[in-house]
Specification:
alpha/beta; about 525 residues; single chain; six-stranded mixed beta sheet
């Protein structure tokens, strides 16, 4: 009986290593400590809810590692730009599509290396980046500017550079979302998308970046909760498909690193097969690291479900051992060891340095893309300028709502006189729409910032009215989705900066006022403007 109990305890410790879990605090709380000590989980994921000051992040990471019997993988989604869990006290690099507009692999490598060094100093040793989905669907609600662009060659080149940069800094890079999430019009956080293309198309477009970067070397790949009928006859997402994870990724593409699932709490899994069953099926499919990011009850359910499956013989212990070996090899390769932390004071001066900030600014300035201009730039400093700034107020699983203290109006006011700004919701109310249209009538120079206008009827109504006015100089700046140009016909001057972050606003303000040339080139086709378009002035 003692031998049986000991064996069951050994299985529990092994299975726990295959799980990465999140928690709801800026310091280790009872739930995450229980998962570490009682279930021996192998990793922890941070979200913005876990991020306090840099010192608090450092102390949290140290506390988690001290509680664990084996070194933990501590991961974060720090893609840069619009998807970044930590922004204060570190160097926030431009996001993927802004980097795609630079066409600069060396710059992308260095951006990832700098970001990776800062993450590692704060105790994070795994980044769920880069996103190498090929964004060839303008209506994609979840990828968009998280992609480097719409051509597999550009995505492969810059994705390889980013992965190498993170790994050079001692941080495990993670390509996502395999086999591709770029051509969906459904958010897998909310439902289960399908990509119906035949294998020939998928081989040429979606798989190309993964194939290329696997050859150049990458530590981990994250699965997509997307159905691919070309590879899997059952209507199940790639995350749960042995044909895709083992047959395609392991055997055909030759990937030997760690396969990590996207979060099983997303509706594509949680509201279909369920988190517990999903965890079992993901392990059976070939996943090594199972991500359950939020709810403690679902985390326990998932771990217990896999333990039960091993005890019943539905999953072999050898299968668990294979994943543990891959996880251990990853930790050894990246130097993730049990060690005594040196203390925050030892690393404080390595974060957000003058040099790293200057490098990020240089990349941002290179990304600003002037798509169209019918002789309206630069802005006149002799006219009053009205700026419309859409503020993101709705929380999303990927882009967590954060009020941006730096706005385009604020940056322009540093460069030219007489700038007035109206802040509205990114999905403006009737009252806000009416206010903007009334106020703007008194101005002949208007800068309308858009934020995913294709998904906002209110923003489109404002643009339609402004475009139709005569005697008004209207400049439209897309502060996220470059496809906003197609939302309303008749736009005469249009710039894309791919994100609403402070560096982007500083850069675009310089371009608008003629203090900086526009050097970016479109990474995607926008209306009649093809990939590579960019007015170089």
């Amino acid at each position: 009986m003692e031998d049986i109990a000991e064996h069951r305890g050994g299985i529990r410790k092994k299975v726990g290593q295959l799980f990465m879990c999140g928690f709801m605090d800026t310091r280790p709380n009872d739930n995450i400590l229980k998962l570490i000590t009682d279930y021996n989980i192998g990793g922890v994921i941070y979200f913005r809810r876990n991020i306090g000051t840099p010192e608090e992040v450092y102390e949290c990471s140290a506390g988690l590692q001290q509680a664990a019997s084996e070194p933990l993988l501590i991961a974060i989604d720090q893609e840069g730009g619009m998807v970044a869990r930590i922004e204060q006290g570190v160097t926030l690099m431009p996001g993927n599509m802004a980097l795609g507009a630079t066409r600069d692999p060396e710059g992308v490598f260095e951006a990832a290396r700098i970001a990776g060094l800062e993450l590692r100093q704060l105790g994070m040793n795994m980044n769920f980046a880069p996103c190498v989905d090929v964004n060839n669907n303008p209506t994609n609600p979840v990828i968009g500017v998280r992609s480097f662009g719409e051509t597999p060659q550009l995505v492969a080149s810059l994705g390889a550079a980013a992965a190498a940069g993170y790994q050079n800094a001692g941080v495990a890079a993670t390509l996502k979302h395999f086999p591709g999430h770029g051509d969906t019009d459904t958010d897998s956080h909310l439902a289960l998308p399908t990509i119906p293309h035949p294998r020939e198309r998928l081989e040429t477009i979606e798989l190309a970046p993964f194939r290329h970067i696997i050859k150049t070397g990458v530590d981990a790949i994250m699965t997509a909760h997307v159905v691919f009928p070309a590879y899997e006859e059952q209507e199940i997402p790639a995350t749960l498909s042995k044909n895709i994870l083992t047959g395609l990724l392991r055997q055909k593409l030759g990937f030997e690193g760690v396969i990590v699932t996207d979060c099983l709490e997303m509706n594509a899994i949680a509201q279909t097969v369920g988190v517990g069953t999903g965890a079992v099926q993901a392990v059976q499919a070939g996943a090594d690291l199972i991500l359950v990011s939020h709810r403690f009850d679902w985390q326990v359910e998932a771990i217990e479900a896999v333990i039960g499956a091993v005890e019943r013989g539905e999953i072999s212990e050898a299968r668990i051992d294979d994943s543990i070996s891959r996880l251990q090899r990853l930790k050894l390769k990246r130097g993730i060891l049990k060690e005594e932390p040196a203390g925050f004071a030892a690393i404080r001066d390595t974060l957000a340095t003058t040099a790293s900030h200057a490098f990020a600014q240089k990349l941002s300035e290179h990304s600003i893309t002037l798509v169209k201009d019918e002789g309206q730039l630069p802005l006149s400093g002799k006219e009053r300028t009205y700026v419309i700034w859409p503020e993101v107020r709705v929380h999303h699983e990927v882009v967590e709502a954060l009020r941006e203290e730096v706005t385009l109006g604020g940056e322009l006011s540093e460069l030219i006189p007489q700038v007035d700004e109206r802040i509205i919701d990114a999905d403006p109310s009737e009252e806000e729409i009416g206010l903007v249209l009334t106020e703007s009538a008194a101005y002949t120079q208007i800068v309308a910032v858009t934020y995913n206008a294709g998904f906002s009827g209110g923003q489109r109504r404002i643009l339609t009215e402004l475009v139709g006015r005569t005697g008004t100089r209207l400049i439209v700046v897309a502060a996220r989705d470059p496809f906003d140009y197609t939302a309303v016909p008749g736009i005469r001057t249009y710039l894309a900066c791919y994100e609403n972050k402070p560096l982007a606003m500083q850069s675009v303000a310089k371009v608008l006022t003629g203090q900086l040339p526009a050097r970016g080139r479109l990474p995607v086709t926008v209306g009649e403007f093809h990939v590579g378009t960019g007015i170089q002035v």
